[in-house]
Amino acid sequence: MQSEKTKVGVIGVGHLGQHHAKHYDLRENVTLVGVYDTNSNRAKEIARQYNTRFFDRLEDLMGICDGVSIVTPTESHYNVAKMAIEDFNCHVFIEKPITETTEQADDLIKLAKAKNKLIQVGHIERLNPALTIFKKYNLNPKFIEIQRLAPYTVRGTDVPVVLDLMIHDIDILLSLVKSDVKSIHASGVSIITNSVDIANARIRFNNGTVASVTSSRVAKNKVRKIKLFQENLYTTIDLLLEQTEIYTITDDPSLIPDVLKTEPFTQNNEKKHIAYQKPNLDKYDMLGLEIKNFIASIKGKEKPIVNGIEARNALDAVIKINNMILEDLK
Ligand code: NAD
User: Fold this and answer.
1) Separation of 78 CA from ligand 1 center, angstroms?
2) Which strands sit side by side in the sheet containing 67-70, from one edge to the other?
3) Of 43, 178, 280, 303, whose CB neighbour count within 10 A is largest?
4) Which among 44, 60, 72 is the best mutation to test ligand 1's pocket, defined by most ligand atoms within 8 Å of the CB?
5) pLDDT at 326
C-alpha cells in the first residue's frame, strides 16, 4: 500500500553509514528495521543510537527490508548488493563507487532489471545546490575544467585517487555533457601511497566538448571547483563553499534576473554587456535528499537521481583513466 512505511536497513554503519541510519530514522514514511556491520560492536552502538535492532546475520536483516543502503568498503559492494537483489528482492542504495569493476556493475544492473529492483548510487555531488541551479540554464559547455584537491587522510587511500575522488567529477562531467566520450588522455603520479595520488585526465567528447579533470589527495587545503565555458557564458562552481558565479554576455542585461554588475564592451561593432550573477542557492542536507529520493523511488514517485547505469559509466571511465595512468607510468 502507498501509505505503508518503507522498511529499510543499513549495511555497514561506519563513517558514512551512520548518517544513512540517521536520515532513515528522521523520515516519517520509513521504518529503519535494523543495521548490520561486520564489526558487531559498531552495529550495536548505531542501533542503540537510532533505537533500532542490530543483526548478527545479514540474511535476517535483508529478509525483512524493502530496501537497503550498502555503505561497506567498495570491495564488498558487489557481493552484498547481489545478495540483496537476487536472494531478498531488495532495492539497493549503494555508496559510490557502485562496484570495483565494470563487469560487476553490469551484472548488478542486469539482475536488478530482471528482478524489477532499483539501483541508486551515492554520487552525492550531483545534488549540490551549486550545480543543481543549472537546471534552469541551457548548458552546452565547450570547455570544462574541474579540480578536486584534498589534504592526505588515510580514509579512502585503499583505492587510487581516481576511484576515490575523481569519480565524483567524472560522474558530474558525464551528466553535464550529453555526448559520448571520444578520447581520453591521462597521467598521474604516486607521492604518498603505493597507488596514484595525483591525476589529470583530458577528455574529448564526440560533440567537441573538452574537459580537464585534476584530482589530488596531496594538497594543503580542500578545493572542489568547476569552471565551465560555453558560448556567451562562463561560470565558476564551488562545490565546497556551495557557491556559483555566472558571467553572461548579453545585449540586454535587464533581461537577466538578479544581475549584480554589468560591464559594457564592443563585439563585432555591437554593444554588449558582461552580466555578473551570484545566485542565492537553496540550502539542504544532500544525503538527506538522496535518502528521500531513494524512498520516493521505491514508492514509484521519483526516479533515482543517479542510477546504476550512470554510476557504471562513471566507473568505466575512471577505470580507463586509471589504467592509462598506470600504463603511462611503466
Ligand atoms: P568506513 O570504513 O568508515 O565504514 C565501513 C563500515 O563497513 C565499517 O564499520 C566496517 O566494519 C563495515 N564493513 C566492512 N565490510 C563489511 C561487510 N562485508 N558487511 C557489512 N559491514 C562491513 O567507510 P566509509 O568511509 O563509511 O565508506 C563506506 C563506503 O562509502 C565506501 O564505498 C566509500 O567509497 C563510500 N563513501 C562515499 C562517500 C561519498 O561522498 N558519497 C564518502 C565517503 C565514503
Assistant:
1) 13
2) 53-54, 30-36, 6-11, 67-70, 91-95, 119-122
3) 43
4) 72
5) 93
